[in-house]
């Protein structure tokens, strides 16, 4: 769903583009939506896209999981909380904060452009542990590309990254970016941007900050058909 719909509001259930992405309140709403209603929205999404077997599988899995949780809660609430509910709360928060951070900078003038709806994290300590997930622009442009080929693909596309004003940060990961945005440290992020070519190299620090501010604006266009 996520890569097919490409962060499009109204279709990608994990879309960030409709939110003001430096808003903590916006993120809380985003997380709670996933936490509380994804079990309903995901099967409905599959039905709308004509994926009936996926809809049935998702609905059965979600319903079965929650039914089992209720039954186990009645048998031993403490064990159920620590083995099922608490891990669900923690993991859902981490997953949604990760995706929010990956798609925190979206160009409202070109929200469907893979080079403007996310960014790359270069020389990031997380990359060897996450199969080069830091090359997230490359991942969205071709989600079937093997992780070991992503750095070379990035180098091959430097000119395209420069032309499209694609963002690349050095030495930091997605969580670092998300936390920096929430704490208002856009200048700190600008200092860690790697220019991908002469166009970007000519931009000043303040111009980078302005670009980052622009890409935090919510996208208000109608949903993709």
TrEMBL record:
Residues 1-154 form the Fatty acid desaturase domain. GO terms for biological process: lipid metabolic process. Pfam families: FA_desaturase. InterPro entries: FA_desaturase_dom. Keywords: Membrane, Transmembrane, Transmembrane helix. It comes from the Eukaryota. The chain crosses the membrane at residues 28-47, 54-73, 79-98. This is Fatty acid desaturase domain-containing protein. It comes from Tetradesmus obliquus (Green alga).
């Amino acid at each position: 769903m996520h890569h097919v719909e490409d962060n499009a509001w109204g279709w990608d259930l994990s879309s960030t583009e409709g939110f003001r992405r430096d808003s903590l309140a916006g993120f809380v709403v985003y997380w709670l939506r996933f936490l509380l209603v994804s079990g309903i929205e995901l099967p409905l999404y599959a039905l709308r896209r004509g994926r009936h077997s996926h809809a049935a599988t998702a609905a059965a899995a979600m319903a079965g999981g929650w039914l089992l949780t209720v039954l186990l809660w009645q048998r031993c609430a403490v064990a159920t909380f620590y083995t099922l509910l608490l891990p669900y709360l923690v993991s859902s928060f981490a997953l949604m904060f990760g995706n929010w951070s990956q798609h925190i900078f979206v160009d409202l003038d070109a929200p469907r452009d893979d080079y403007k709806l996310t960014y790359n994290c270069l020389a990031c300590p997380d990359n060897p542990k996450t199969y080069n997930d830091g090359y997230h622009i490359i991942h969205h442009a071709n989600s079937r590309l093997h992780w070991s080929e992503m750095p070379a693909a990035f180098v091959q596309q430097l000119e395209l990254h420069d032309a499209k004003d694609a963002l690349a940060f050095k030495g930091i990961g997605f969580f670092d970016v998300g936390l920096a945005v929430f704490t208002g440290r856009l200048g700190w992020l600008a200092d860690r941007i790697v220019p991908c070519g002469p166009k970007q190299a000519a931009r000043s620090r303040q111009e980078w900050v302005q670009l980052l501010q622009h890409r935090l604006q919510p996208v208000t266009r109608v949903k993709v058909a």
